[in-house]
Amino acid sequence: MIRITTIFTCLLLVTSSLFAQKLNKEEKKLVSIVDQNMTEAIDFLEKIVNINSGTNNLEGVKEVGNVFKLELDALGFETKWIDMPPEMKRAGHLFAEREGNKGKRILLMGHLDTVFEPTGNSQGFIIMDTIAYGPGASDMKGGDMILLFALKALHQANLLKNTQLIVSYHGDEEMAGTPISISRKDIELAAKRSDIALSFEGATGFGFATVARRGASHWTLTVTGNQAHSSAIFRPEVGAGAIYESARILHRFYDELQEVNLTYSPGIIAGGTIVEEKDNEFILSGKSNIVPNKTVISEEQKENTRAKMREIVSENLPGTTAEIVFEDSYPAMQLTEGNMNLLNTLSQISIDLGQGEVKAWDPGKRGAGDISFIAKYVDGLDGLGAMGNGAHSPEEYVYLNTLDEQIKRTALLIYRLTRER
Ligand SMILES: [Zn+2]
Description:
Elements: H1 2-21, H2 25-36, H3 38-49, H4 58-74, E1 78-82, E2 93-98, E3 102-111, E4 126-128, E5 131-133, H5 137-156, E6 163-170, H6 180-183, H7 185-192, E7 196-199, E8 208-209, E9 216-224, E10 228-229, H8 242-256, E11 265-272, E12 274-278, E13 281-285, E14 290-291, E15 294-301, H9 306-314, E16 321-330, H10 337-352, E17 359-360, E18 379-381, E19 388-389, E20 397-399, H11 403-417
Parallel strand pairs: 3-6, 3-7, 7-18, 8-17
Antiparallel strand pairs: 1-2, 2-6, 4-5, 5-20, 9-15, 9-16, 10-14, 11-15, 12-13, 19-20
The structure holds zinc ion.
Residues 111, 139-140, 173, 201 line the site of zinc ion.
């Protein structure tokens, strides 16, 4: 009996010393500081989740921003609130920077706004066992907190000295202010002065990070035919009508354009004799006994399909014309070697922490995000935020028992990258 116990103890000692060897003295210090700060971290998350910051609640977004501003000031960052022009109806962004020339220059990204406006019937932050419900708990106040507490640990361990870091907390990620050239100007400038961008949007899984994201753009298809009595349809002088022509185009889009990681969904369709569109609402008139003369469709799709779409649109049925207009919103975050190298660095840290490997998340499952705007300037990773579920729904929650591990990973990632040449 005694012998068995001894062997067991020895095995445990061997395992823990193997793990410990992979972290240097400073990294071990970071890990223990993160552990010490966890109660404060959860309290902080509760505090920011309980401040409503729906994108349209400009005061609320600024209030959450101010909580972060005070914290970052205390860590020695130079902070500033960047207002947007009043006609854009957006709260603006918090930027914080510290200057230095040690290792890689990193841009760290979060957003303060949520999809939940004050008019909703939110219950606020409610802890149930190992999860916490709350608007924006995982998208992305959890990630905002992870980033801040990683920086706090680095500061307390005196490891921020001489590092070049920019922290950006956008006030309008959920509904980017337009024009994009103004609302995303500051992040673009910050990216141009950085080597790497790390974004703390909700994690898709404990062992995953995002190395590529799909882009998003809108298209509007307008089809015009000849209005006439329905009995005259298909006659040369009348033709096929706008609804048949729309059906032809959509059917060919469905049949001929499908590719991996590409979606092109018609969001709204309206057809009839008069079609007027304003802010996604249609004023429509029509009769079952007339050949319709107009349809309008709008939705989202991706860049490289446009040529094929134009070609299909141009092969009109008799007596109809069709026009398709594209409008850019989010570019794609391309998969690059640099992004994969970053992922490997993160994965090694995770292994060294005894947390297991981190793999690339399937880009086809990840829609557009803020990192997409700057992906062409820097190597980047996204999905480094909190684990949770139900983002954008009243059931949104965050897992509380993985937050410490994620803060540790983040602190070590920033630490190792700022020591890298
Ligand atoms: Zn988000």
